[in-house]
Amino acid sequence: MVYYHVGKVLEILSGKEVSSSDQSLQAVVETWDENVITYLVDPKLKDKIKVGDIVLIDYNPTEKQPFRPKEIIIKILHGEKGKRVWEYYKEFFKRRPRVRVRGTPEKQSYIG
Fold first, then answer.
1. How many other CB atoms sit within 10 Å of the CB of residue 40?
2. Among 6, 48, 52, 91, which is most exposed with the fewest C-beta within 10 angstroms?
3. Hey, where are the domains in the chain?
4. CATH of region 4-95, choose from 3.40.640.10, 2.40.50.140, 3.40.1030.10, 3.40.50.720
5. Any idea what DSSP says for residue 93?
6. Distances 78 to 39, 48, 49, 52, 81 between C-alpha atoms, Å
7. Three-class SS of residue 87?
8. What mean pLDDT is predicted for residues 2-22?
9. pTM: predicted TM-score of the whole model, two decimal places
10. Per-residue model confidence as pLDDT tens digits over 52-94
């Protein structure tokens, strides 16, 4: 099975306000299912990615650890295509059934 996530870039972790021990680039991303996660950016996209971009994140298993996803941004979906794909996922998320979590019942105060 081939598996990807779609997300929207909130922050790029580079620039004068970031000190780094290596040349890698990370982006803080809101995923379609309302998570906020920091992902590695593929080096080929390093100079192209920006805040607000819609991105495709590779969630396929790694070769060395088959139960661990790659979690790397591999594509930027520009313009109308990005907007449409983002909306497809967000609409799906809104329509899917929600599991209701039952809270713990309030304790009745002692009446004596």
1. 16
2. 52
3. 4-95
4. 2.40.50.140
5. H
6. 19, 11, 10, 10, 6
7. helix
8. 93
9. 0.80
10. 999 999 999 988 888 889 999 999 999 999 999 999 999 998 8
